[in-house]
Amino acid sequence: RDRINIAIDGPAGAGKSTVARMVASRLQYIYVDTGAMYRAVTWFMLNQGISPENPEKVLQLAQNMVIELKPHENGQMVWLNGEDVTPYIRSHQVSAVVSQYARIEGLRIKLVRLQQQMALDKGVVMDGRDIGTTVLPDAEVKIFMTASVKERALRRFHELSDEGITLEQLERDIAERDRLDQEREVSPLRCAEDAIILDTTHMDINQVVEAILSYC
Ligand code: C5P
User: Fold this and answer.
1) What residues bind ATP, as annotated (predicted)?
2) ipTM of the modeled complex
3) Cα(167)–Cα(165) distance, integer angstroms
4) Choice from 19, 181, 184, 186 to test ligand 1 binding pocket (greatest atom count within 8 A of CB)
């Protein structure tokens, strides 16, 4: 079959990136983690001391920013202005504020354009919040992956064991990020009308991957 584009959206911690990476590897497609792009920008702004309350300044700095995604054996590397920022973008510090930067319209326009360019030749598995609705409305397969807040917090907890965060804190953070992502005005987290909804609360990763592949 011809190469297609696959959009995977859903709330924080649903396991989208792990699943998207595995689907991409099975199909020999390119995996694009759009959350990593918002995280890289957030890390950069925090470093420069630019608050999300100052969108003009954020946009001014974002203007000449060069973001590159590079494939890597266990996931993907993110480079910003020629520097590998992959090790910094998953920190709790970045997670806590990324949604506040992600609601800045001009920043989204810039990143969405970049994401659309990456998918022009098809054969892309892209995960995020607005892929099926805004970035790739013509994607051949659209998946909306969810799981309960409790289950998502638990999954993140196992990933972050060394950061000294409690499960309760993670649950609160995830619920708050869901709220911000769903309530923002510009491309909120929303299920596309033609998306397949996968509630993964009681599924393991391989079951989710097989389910998605069965639609491709
Ligand atoms: O997917 P991940 O949890 O890494 O995304 C981090 C944050 O980036 C999300 O909570 C959301 O605020 C933002 N994001 C977005 N649109 C996307 C991907 C991520 O707004 N397509």
Assistant:
1) 10-18
2) 0.98
3) 7
4) 181
